Here is the input.
Amino acid sequence: MRSSWSISLLAILLAGCVSIKPSHLSRHPSPVTRHASPVTRHVPESQLYKATLDIKKHHLTGLMMIKRTDTIRPAEPQSGKGMTAGIYRFVFMNEVGMTFFDLQLDSGELKVISCFASMNKKALIKILETDFRMLLSDISLKNERVYIQEKTGNIAVSGKTGKYSSWQTWSPGGDTLLIKSGKSTIADPAIIRFENYSEGTPKKITIENPFIGMKLTLRKLAR
Here is the structure.
């Protein structure tokens, strides 16, 4: 029994060591202008991605639809939980239409519309909520601090978005978002990478959750 407790404690301590902070930073002397989040930049009705979800040895493939469903468009972002204003659906299904999960997210709560029983676990749903809130989070942070990444010249910004401690990494000119990362506890750190930009939109998004070894890869499909 003592041994199992020791193993559990070690796992928790190792998870707590997962850092969302970029490396090799020095303080930037002045504020930096940044552009809007690439996912919500054009306030799309829907976006469709080819998706792969890996959780340790488990591998799922299919399609992910991200759709904004509300008709009232608030002029300002809502900061309650750390996301851009609106109601969004995240639907992950396989190629024949079987739904792995269907989640609805707004500034107040995440609602499970449907979910495979094997995935409908409270801890996993909370991690997915962190992933999707960080994905949709507004670029404005509270208590912002601006840094330069010494090896790359990239701009790094730290602060709070809702309940999440957050970091953003931008290109040296502040015009391309490269990475968002955030967490509210040691159990839900999320690292989101934006790649392969075309006309201001990333064609590939990778979301990693080091605590549970989960990786969600989204490749945007042409409409």
